[in-house]
Amino acid sequence: MEITEKLTNTHELVLIGRDDAIGYHGIIAIHSTALGPAVGGTRFWNYDNEAEALTDALRLSQGMTYKSALAGLPLGGGKSIIIGNSARNRNALLRAHGRFVDTLQGRYITAEDVGTSPADMEIVRLETKYVAGLIGRSGDPSPFTAAGVFRAIQASNYFLWRTLELSGLTVAIQGCGNVGYCLAKELHEVGVRLIVSDVNSENLSRVVAEFGAEAVAPNEIFSVKADVFAPCALGGVLNDETIPQLKVQIVAGSANNQLLEERHGTMLRNRNILYAPDYVANVGGVLNGCTELLGWTSEQAVTKMLAIYDTVLRIFKIAEEEGITPNEAADRLAEERLQRSERPEDRD
């Protein structure tokens, strides 16, 4: 495999890996190891070009750093990407990716992400021990991620209306994949009306059939009248085009990098829409992985997941008191923790 370094002012290390013999083209981005080894999933996705994939990796890895920092975890932030068509020899690509990850010898630990699964991680593990989210261990993080988003919605609801009761609310969910499905299930069980969309008709039909959700076309989900918009698909969905369409009072979902640009947090605030920062709301999957990464008990992971509620409320309070957006407040808290930290090799 040919590995080249991509220089950047924002990240500790960015590597491009290629094995042309099998069609492997991957990226590993390590944003920070100030708090501990960089953790972040492997995204298997089609991109128009390497530059587009690299932008995704850089944003996602920084989000992982902030996610772990705000949750008080001794972990850093990283992300990896396999670029290409999943119809190729998938096993060969995953094994090549495992060899790529292994070159870092634990500085970066991977897991499942969009386009990969715990079963895929078992294949990656054939080439490296630096992988989590394995079958029979922490496994699929989706239910835990959804549970954390549910807590973020509860906190947002309480901040606006001083009640934890969600029954009677309408929540619009964009994306009915693993996390979206689990979130829909939790919300349905407490009496929430659901409006959903997904580009995958099978995912959409399942949620409609099981939870009585109303389905709308993907481009219509932004303009439906609801109390909460929950982005649970890909990032960048809150932007100049979509924000003016929103008819909600809360945005809280599981997708990473929901704001296309930081200024879109200001756009939401100017429209009096309360935004629960994505990397605060969706940290549940990482907390679930700590049963493998840090040897936590399931009870410890659940306790941390429930505390997402308190963290979200703290961010809203800071934003309100200081006249800043919730995403600015969250970034500030995360950066303060990073600045207070020392690198692991510098500690006594």
Question: Which features would summarize this protein structure in a list?
Answer:
Rossmann fold; alpha/beta; about 350 residues; 7-stranded mixed sheet; disordered C terminus
Structure description:
The protein has 348 residues and is of the alpha/beta class. It folds into 2 domains: 2-65 and 75-124, Leucine Dehydrogenase, chain A, domain 1 (Rossmann fold), CATH 3.40.50.10860; 142-336, Rossmann fold. It has helices at 50-70, 90-102, 118-124, 142-161, 178-189, 201-211, 263-270, 278-281, 284-293, 298-306, 308-322, 326-340; strands at 2-5, 13-19, 24-32, 38-39, 42-45, 76-83, 108-109, 170-174, 193-197, 214-215, 228-231, 250-251, 274-275. Strands 1, 2, 3, 4, 5, 6 and 7 form a 7-stranded mixed beta sheet that branches. Strands 10-9-8-11-12-13 form a 6-stranded parallel beta sheet, with helices on both faces. Residues 343-348 have low confidence and may be disordered.
CATH superfamily of the largest domain: NAD(P)-binding Rossmann-like Domain
Unreliably modeled segments: 343-348
Termini, distance in Å?
37 Å
Supply the helix-strand structural class: alpha/beta
User: What helical percentage do the residues reach?
Assistant: 40-55%
Major beta sheet summary: 7 strands, mixed
CATH topology of the largest domain: the name is Rossmann fold
The CATH architecture of the largest domain can be named as 3-Layer(aba) Sandwich
Number of helical runs?
A: 12
